[in-house]
Design a protein that fits this description.
alpha+beta; two-stranded antiparallel ribbon; elongated; binds zinc ion
Length: about 200
């Protein structure tokens, strides 16, 4: 078993719907609640589903994280398969500075710089530009100063991509996960291509 982390219950778990499509990333703590409540099965390294009763009898392996329980070690699942849910939800992602940075890959939409990032209103606030997904972008301080109270067109600046409201919560969450787990890879291919397109 690997060295215990600060908090194994905070480890990320990829949640799949019944059709094995990624739905969201949750914490191991929530994953155990879903598993224990019978609403999901945990997938092992061969992608075999297990209910809680059976899962709790599995020995944590070399690469596994585990939580201590009075009766031994409980393996932390990396993948969870929901039993009664077959849609891909369009969970609204909260509009926040942090999430705009995540969407924009922590890079200025004008020049790509990753330092001194601020939030830019594409149509300036002073001219009625709102705080919406479509009007807020990550922007470095230099570009922000250069743009001033102008639109990108007026300032002769182009955006590397159009700001849109993210619909794929999982994709956006993923950019915040430092090490997507290898076990997730088979389920993320379709999302990755969506993100690239
Ligand atoms: Zn810039």
């Amino acid at each position: 078993m690997s060295a215990p982390r600060r908090d194994a219950l905070a480890s990320p778990v990829l949640v799949l719907n019944r059709s094995y499509q990624p739905v969201r990333i949750t914490s191991a703590r929530n994953a155990f609640l879903l598993l224990y409540g019978g609403r999901a099965h945990a997938l092992d390294e061969d992608y075999e589903p297990h209910d809680f009763e059976h899962w709790s009898t599995l020995e944590p392996g070399e690469r596994d994280e585990a939580v201590r329980t009075p009766t031994g070690a409980l393996r932390v699942p990396r993948l969870l398969l929901l039993r009664g849910y077959n849609r891909v939800p369009r969970t609204p992602l909260r509009l926040s500075r942090r999430n705009v940075f995540l969407r924009d890959g922590h890079a200025c939409v004008y020049c790509g710089s990753t330092s001194a990032l601020t939030i830019d209103h594409v149509l300036p606030r002073s001219r009625g530009g709102g705080s919406t997904w479509e009007n807020l972008v990550a922007c470095c301080r230099d570009c922000n100063l250069r743009k001033g109270r102008r639109t990108p067109q007026e300032a002769g600046m182009s955006m590397r991509r159009e700001p849109v409201r993210p619909t794929w919560t999982v994709v956006v969450q993923l950019t915040g996960v430092r090490d997507p787990l290898p076990d997730w890879e088979p389920f993320l291919g379709s999302l990755r291509s969506r993100r690239a397109s």
